[in-house]
Amino acid sequence: MKQYRWALSGSGWISTEMARTLHDNHHTITGIYSKDRKTAKEAAEKYGIEHVFDSYEEMLTDSDTDIIYIGTPNEIHEEEAIKALKAGKHVFCEKPMGLNEEQFVRCLDLAEKKDLVLMDGTTLLHMPLFKDIRKVLKTGKLGKLKMIQVTYGIQKDFNPDSRFYSLEHGGGALMDIGLYAISFLCLYMDNVPDHVKTYVSKASTGVDETSAIIVQNKDGQIGNISLSLNTMKLEQAILCLEKGYILVHGFPRADQAVVHYVDGKTDIIESGNSEQALEYEMKEMESAIEENRQPKGLKDAREVMHILTQIRKQWNIEFPSEQEQWIDCIQ
User: Is the pLDDT of residue 291 over 50?
Assistant: First the structure.
């Protein structure tokens, strides 16, 4: 396989985690751009990044770069993805790929038009464990899947300027941790949910802070999600079946699940390594380019964005950047 060369947009914790992953796997990182030049320089020195660019647009002109990694705040994901695709670069964009389904589809359509690979960075869509769980389900020994329960809560002190609590940054529990929960549902439900009922408590900034979401598909399967930005919850997902259940702790990057049978016996499913989550994504991105195909998980990511968009409509939550009209760059 060709050795692909990456450039990074952003110097926050997730971007530097990707820089570390690329560096540890002996990949060339041609450049980095961040509004915080200090942290960009620190990342460049630590991970052997060749150049710190003065602007995102300048970085896109580098002919040595094959893949642009986008790890910037949510509200500029679509804009940066579009610009990179227009510049002829493959794009790996951290979740979410845009703020709504329309933005997601614009990026996807342009990637297809340009014959470029576009990948959404939702870790659990690429963890080996979830393929092995699917194999267990297909054996039928647990019976039919009836319900999925997901809880996810993080304790974030209220700060109206943080990406968690700011409408301007596309914040809220749903777009941050809820995306993982919906992704888990879409991985295992036989069909996409078509009925959605929700309850939400909002922070004073207008973002969703705590919520309960119940979905159902045409097969009668139910998904039950509980989210919170200011309440600690178990980070877990449970697949509830006729003859047992499968419990997954730390599900966004999980490498272990426990199968519980009706007779009290248990089995452990182990697969992959949670510490290699970004490495799995990196390899899938490069394999998709090499094989000239869409990345695995992209269909699921689109379905997830459709559901997220419908939920926010129920909550009357709209991000300011969704109203901005800069899309004339798509020609």
Answer: yes
pLDDT mean over 146-170? 95
Cβ–Cβ under 8 Å, residues 288 and 115:
no
Rounded average pLDDT over 284-292: 97
How does DSSP assign 183-225, residue by residue? HHHHHHSSS---EEEEEEEE-TTSSEEEEEEEEE-TT--EEEE
Indicate the average pLDDT of the chain: 95
Residue 134's SS3 state is helix
Angle at 100 (CA atoms; ends 34, 310), nearest 5 degrees: 150
Average pLDDT over residues 116-133: 97
Question: What's the burial of 43, exposed, middle or buried (CB within 10 Å: 0-12/13-18/19+)?
Answer: buried
In the chain, alpha helices (H): 13-24, 37-47, 56-60, 77-86, 101-114, 128-139, 173, 179-188, 277-290, 298-315
pLDDT > 70? residue 327: no
pLDDT at position 324: 61
CATH number at residue 213: 3.30.360.10
Is 194 contained in some domain? yes
Q: What domain range includes position 234?
A: 125-277
Is the predicted pLDDT of residue 325 greater than 90, yes or no? no
Please answer whether residues 179 and 96 qualify as being in contact, where contact means their C-beta atoms are separated by less than 8 angstroms.
Answer: yes
b/e map 242-263, b = 16+ CB within 10 Å: eebbbbbeebbbbbebebbeee
Which structure tokens are listed for 203?
């922070």
Q: Is residue 261 part of a domain?
A: yes
Examine residue 15 and state whether it is found in any structural domain, yes or no: no
User: What is the number of structural domains in the chain?
Assistant: 1
